[in-house]
Amino acid sequence: KDFLDRFSSLLEETDTDCFAWALLGNHFHLLLCCQRIKLSTLRKVVSISKARALFCYIAVRLMGEKGFAVGNFLSIGPSGVSRAVTRGDQVLQDDQGLKMKLNELISQ
Q: Are residues 87 and 49 in contact, defined by beta-carbon separation less than 8 angstroms?
């Protein structure tokens, strides 16, 4: 009940409609429609997604960690790690300055 109360309040505060939801053992799925969203909130979500993607890319491609170990650490499945590694590669392709800084750190 506590989760549903907090979730209901959050939906009202953010003017968001929830069309469907499923609570599972260790995660949940939501189908939402946001009426309004602050740009700063969107930027934060994008930043977190990029950080996770870069973390997965560095751990798997550069440090040779196994995808399942990275997934266990981040609590995401193997396909999520694979997608994150691909996104991390794309982030570095799109931001050559970041790629250069990362290469400098690795070569030290």
A: yes
As a whole number of angstroms, the distance between CA 42 and CA 48 comes to 10
Above pLDDT 70, what percent of the chain? 84
Which helix (H) or strand (E) covers residue 10, if one does?
helix 2-13
Q: Cα(10)–Cα(13) distance, rounded to whole angstroms?
A: 5
pTM above 0.85, yes or no: no
d(CA 41, CA 10): 14
> In 1-108, where do the E strands start and end?
16-23, 28-34
Dist. CA 67–CA 79, nearest whole Å:
9
Which residues are 88's β-sheet partners?
none
